[in-house]
Amino acid sequence: ADLVEEVVRLDGYDKVPSVLPIAPPGNGLTPTQRRRRSIARALAEAGYVEVLSYPFVGTAALDALGLPHDDPRRSSVMLANPLSEEEPALRTTLLPPLLATLRRNLGRGQRDLALFEIGLVFHPRDAEGDAPPRMGVADRPSDEELAAAEAFVPEQPWHVAVVLAGAIEPSGWWGDGRQAGWADAVAAARLVLDAAGLPAGRIEVRAGQQAPWHPGRCAEILVDGAVVGHAGELHPAAVAALELPPRTCAME
After folding, report:
1. 100-138 pLDDT tens trace
2. Contact call for residues 116 and 48 (beta carbons, < 8 A)
3. Closest residue by Cα to residue 207 from 180, 183, 236
4. What is the pTM of this model?
5. What local confidence, expressed as pLDDT, does residue 174 receive?
6. Alpha carbon distance 210, 63 (integer Å)
7. What's the CA gap between 224 and 221, in Å, rounded?
8. How far is CA 36 from CA 137, 198, 241, in A?
9. What average pLDDT does this structure show over 143-148?
10. What are the residues whose beta carbons fall under 8 Å from the beta carbon of 230, sequence distance 6 or more?
């Protein structure tokens, strides 16, 4: 698309005829798109503010989270030409850029924050060879060439994450406020699964351990017996390394 735009720009936009495409009737949004919108709407109605972050991370951010050296989230896709040498990889978790956004808002005077993001994460694949095959442009690549190139494309699942700091319920004439806690992060996970259309009978919440969460205040979220996420209070060491308020909570 970028190449086409450059060619058209040099040759002249006025030479391109304008034809309004006819939308196919009755298609609408896909089930996946509807599910993502329902989740975003449910979180927004619960008081969370959506943010969009750059999908780039560096080793320092993963170290600050306290991820073990053998953690699968440290296996990332490296960029050949990164925007910043400090963030040369694509994220495998939404938390580093989301927590950076939280810290940036705290630095601008905000004290009570509830943020969420829905976005892609990137997991490298084990492909044969060092690089995808070079394909010409004269003809359509063969199915074998396309399959060989597809083997190098990272797996890109959608994740949803929330972070909380400060008061979840403000104080006022109606009474005392309430600080955000690990239970609010767990409630956000339940809210996401409910908005995704999963019945409560398929969902289980149990105690778990996963960096960067506090080992005694971390919950595993399971669907049909499979762990799909974690929620709770962040580990004090991670909170200190990221310069966040005490008892900051997160869910992914």
Report:
1. 999 999 999 999 999 999 999 999 988 777 788 888 889
2. yes
3. 183
4. 0.83
5. 85
6. 14
7. 10
8. 36, 13, 32
9. 90
10. 208, 210, 213, 218, 219, 220, 221, 251, 252
pLDDT in tens, 206-243: 999 999 999 999 999 999 999 999 999 999 999 999 99
Tokens of 95: 């938390």
What six digits make up the tokens of 152?
């190098």
- Alpha carbons 61 and 63: distance in angstroms, whole number: 5
